[in-house]
Design goal:
Length: 279
């Protein structure tokens, strides 16, 4: 997968070079290019924003800068041809642990243009799963009051545009949102996590939040690990984990349990756990 990020703060994306993402870069699973939006300005001040039509506070990012930037990043031409390619921050894998590249596929090769904005559709685990199968994601980091809307109407000719929100709050810029989304997506790419089951059992994979986890020692500050986890009975452990996931989800995200009930994904035992009548 290739990620391109367009931003006025390229250094903000440096965390993409670390840990699992840095390892994915080293192994050739991930390629990350960061582009400084100011490369597409033509004035001495390198201005990327201007006052809003209709009045009001703040500034809006200019279509005359974003349009050419997105054209070049789609085609990898102009300043985008030599955007800053991130390498891994430090070695994470042995040289002989690098996988063979996949054969090219025959799918829609227009990249997805991800536009972080509080006015977008919610970014969820389902979004991350969908994007994890893409060959290219391009992220447009807004600042100030955001980007002139015509930029995205126009970009629809070269990209599949998706406006997405991290949640019902307002950040200062799109860079942190990109870091969040890139982590959520890249860890789902086959080969990135050491153990595939790690994400198959994560929160949201089955519509529930994950229950509590424990490690050694068995007793810590007089608190014991639940006995079932030491039983060696895998069926019992799985049932206990699902019960805990159901109870936690019902307590903090009841709407997720309602959605499972609505979709017919709760069985009789699940219901008895939720009603407190399970044995
Ligand atoms: N005027 C915008 C509004 O009210 O919808 C807020 C702009 S915000 C100050 C600047 C940038 O931060 C946005 O263009 C976007 O890139 C990013 N941003 C802020 N909140 C976000 C959120 N909840 N999800 C994703 N991106 C967000």
């Amino acid at each position: 997968m290739r990620l391109d990020v367009i931003t006025i703060f390229p250094e903000y994306l440096d965390p993409l070079r670390h840990a699992l993402l840095g390892r994915a870069i080293e192994r050739g699973i991930l390629d990350v290019a960061v582009h400084d939006l100011r490369s597409w300005t033509h004035d001495v001040h390198k201005a990327v924003d201007d006052t809003p039509y209709g009045g009001g506070p703040g500034m809006v990012m200019k279509p005359t800068v974003w349009g050419p930037a997105l054209d070049d990043v789609a085609a990898l031409t102009g300043p985008a041809a030599d955007g800053l390619r991130l390498d891994s921050a430090h070695p994470h894998v042995a040289a002989d642990d690098v996988p063979e590249p996949d054969a090219p596929g025959g799918r829609d090769d227009r990249p997805v243009l991800v536009v972080p904005t509080p006015a977008g559709r919610p970014f969820t685990q389902a979004t991350a799963e969908r994007w994890a199968t893409e060959e290219r994601l391009v992220f447009a980091c807004g600042r100030y009051e955001g980007i002139d809307q015509r930029v995205f109407e126009d970009a629809g000719e070269r990209y599949r545009v998706e406006e997405v929100s991290l949640g019902d709050y307002v950040l200062i810029g799109g860079e942190v949102a990109v870091l969040v989304m890139a982590e959520a997506v890249v860890r789902l790419i086959p080969g990135v996590l050491g153990n595939r089951r790690s994400h198959e059992e994560d929160s949201f994979q089955d519509g529930l939040l994950e229950g509590p986890s424990y490690t050694k020692p068995r007793v810590w500050r007089d608190r014991e690990v639940p006995a079932v986890l030491l039983s060696g009975d895998h069926a019992k452990v799985d049932r206990w984990r699902r019960d805990q996931a159901l109870l936690r989800t019902a307590a903090v995200r009841p709407e997720l349990v309602e959605a499972l009930e609505h979709d017919g994904r709760l069985d009789g035992h699940d219901r008895s756990v939720l009603e407190g009548t399970a044995e």
